[in-house]
Specification:
Structural class of chain A: mainly alpha
Oligomer: heterodimer
Distance between the termini of chain A: 41 Å
Order of helices and strands of chain B: HHHHHHH
Number of strands of chain A: 0
Largest sheet of chain B: none
Low-confidence stretches of chain A: none
Helix content of chain A: over 70%
Largest sheet of chain A: none
Shape of chain A: globular
Largest interface: A-B, 46 and 32 residues
Number of domains of chain B: 3
Mean pLDDT of chain B: 80
Strand content of chain A: under 5%
Helix content of chain B: over 70%
Shape of chain B: elongated
Order of helices and strands of chain A: HHHHHHHH
Low-confidence stretches of chain B: none
Structural class of chain B: mainly alpha
Number of domains of chain A: 2
Distance between the termini of chain B: 104 Å
Radius of gyration of chain B: 37 Å
Number of helices of chain B: 7
Strand content of chain B: under 5%
């Protein structure tokens, strides 16, 4: 069973990536924070007594389900708001997701870079994030779980609720799409 | 560059921009603390823990759940064996019936008062 301290360390280790994942998926800062908060609560309340090794997969599964719940709720809300009023600004949120927002000063590993390199690096990250947001949800989900969260194929499949074959297909397509999109922008990694 | 290498480079880039603003970090920290305050501390398998607690209270000593369960299983097993031995099987009943019908009853049967009263009742 994970102790309180272990659970705390686990959540602290995954919260930033979880927030970023949610933000790529929903493109809304506040909604992404709510999703991470809900996921943490669900994990702690329902699976807080599980062994530490099981937590990464369980947390990712909860996170992805919470993101999907958000999609469903947004879809229903958008349906009602468009029916009730043509003046609804429901679609504005997606357009408000300005990639330049993420150009905030980058610290840590980039501190050694000079201003031109710093800017170039920031632009590269913005481009990558931008292309990640454009990926189909399942492809993005598979790619991030597999390669960013470093889950293996079986764990990714379990977290996504699909077969291992589907995970491989989604990852391969996502990598292809990302590589082609970055190449079109003249970016080589 | 294969898929894995490409993905590794993307991961490196994504890891570089995990520095978030203070307000976001504060909210994440608050969410984490709220979650920790509601951590589930036991598995559902321990729902019978009240039995251990009850025995401990009665005996005045802390008793583990496994001892209580083992004791309960032993008592159930004793009752089961006792019930099984007391209940006559179909074969035994058949033997008694056949003995009555053929007049092949042992002499002890006629010394049994309840058998005697049963005979009298059945003759009426």
């Amino acid at each position: 069973m994970a102790s309180r301290n272990e659970l705390s360390q686990f959540l602290a280790a995954v919260e930033r990536r979880a927030y970023k994942q949610a933000r790529y998926a929903v493109r809304d800062e506040q909604a992404a924070l709510d999703i991470v908060q809900d996921s943490m609560l669900k994990l702690s309340e329902k699976y807080g007594a599980k062994p530490l090794v099981e937590l990464p997969m369980l947390f990712q599964r909860i996170l992805q389900n919470t993101i999907r719940d958000y999609y469903r709720r947004t879809k229903v809300r958008a349906l009602w708001t468009t029916q009730l009023s043509s003046l609804s600004g429901g679609k504005d949120n997606a357009e408000d997701a300005d990639p330049l927002e993420t150009l905030a000063p980058v610290e840590g590993s980039n501190e050694a870079l000079g201003p031109p390199d710093h800017l170039e690096n920031s632009q590269l990250i913005v481009s990558i994030e931008d292309e990640l947001k454009k990926l189909p949800p399942r492809q993005r989900e598979a790619f991030l779980l597999r390669y960013w969260e470093e889950l293996d194929v079986a764990e990714t499949a379990q977290a996504m609720g699909c077969s291992e074959g589907s995970v491989k297909t989604h990852c391969s397509r996502a990598a292809h799409t990302l590589a082609s999109a970055l190449k079109r922008k003249g970016i080589t990694l | 560059m294969n898929e894995r290498e490409f993905a590794y480079k993307i991961k490196q880039q994504l890891d570089r921009q995990l520095d978030l603003d203070a307000a976001t970090l504060m909210r994440l920290k608050a969410a984490r603390e709220r979650a920790l305050a509601r951590q589930r501390v036991s598995e559902p398998a321990l729902v019978l823990a009240w039995a251990g607690a009850a025995v401990a209270r009665l005996s005045g000593r802390p008793t583990s759940m496994s001892i209580v369960l083992a004791g309960a299983a032993l008592i159930l097993a004793i009752f089961g064996v006792h019930y099984w031995q007391q209940t006559p099987t179909v074969e035994e009943l058949e033997e008694i019936d056949a003995a009555i019908l053929t007049g092949d009853l042992p002499i002890n049967a006629y010394l049994d008062k309840s058998f005697d009263s049963w005979l009298k009742r059945s003759q009426h």
